[in-house]
UniProtKB/TrEMBL annotation:
Source lineage: Bacteria, Pseudomonadati, Bacteroidota, Flavobacteriia, Flavobacteriales
Span of domain RecX second three-helical: 43-79
Organism of derivation: Cruoricaptor ignavus
Assigned protein family: Belongs to the RecX family.
Entry GO terms, CC: cytoplasm
Full protein name: Regulatory protein RecX
Length: 137
């Protein structure tokens, strides 16, 4: 399990899911989790920060989509809010503008208002907030 956590930052739920594959008594699972936390192989804040950075800077996801995926992994709202400072506000707006221009430019044969509606829906599906999209167009 230490190798599993050392390879990539993991959250508690991922480690617990992996341990379900092994036939272990509950006391052994708890002991393994405590060891991983004590030796800093398992750190929720480090996982959350790297998850936010990776999904935003690599996949260009917006805050809403990142937040939704972190909730599915069992990360608390308080921890999420404290870690969202990993995304620079200027980078966030710049990324939203680039994604807008890229998708808006691909749409052919539509009137401007139709392009705007489709692009807005697309970017909201990518997790960008309505307020951010209003600033763009």
């Amino acid at each position: 399990m230490a190798n599993y956590c050392a390879y990539q930052d993991r959250c508690h739920s991922e480690v617990e899911q992996k341990m379900r594959e092994f036939v272990l008594i509950p006391e052994a699972k708890e002991e393994i989790l405590l060891y991983l936390i004590r030796e800093n192989y398992l750190n929720e804040e480090r996982f959350t920060r790297s998850f936010i950075r990776g999904k935003f800077y690599q996949k260009q996801w917006g805050r809403n989509k990142i937040r939704q995926h972190l909730k599915m992994k069992g990360i608390t709202e308080k921890l999420m809010n404290s870690c969202f400072d990993e995304i620079d506000e200027e980078d966030y707006l710049e990324t939203a503008k680039k994604e807008w221009e890229k998708y808006h430019g691909k749409l052919k044969g539509l009137q401007d208002y139709q392009k705007n509606i489709k692009t807005t829906r697309y970017l909201m599906g990518r997790g960008f907030e309505w307020e951010v999209l209003q600033e763009i167009f």
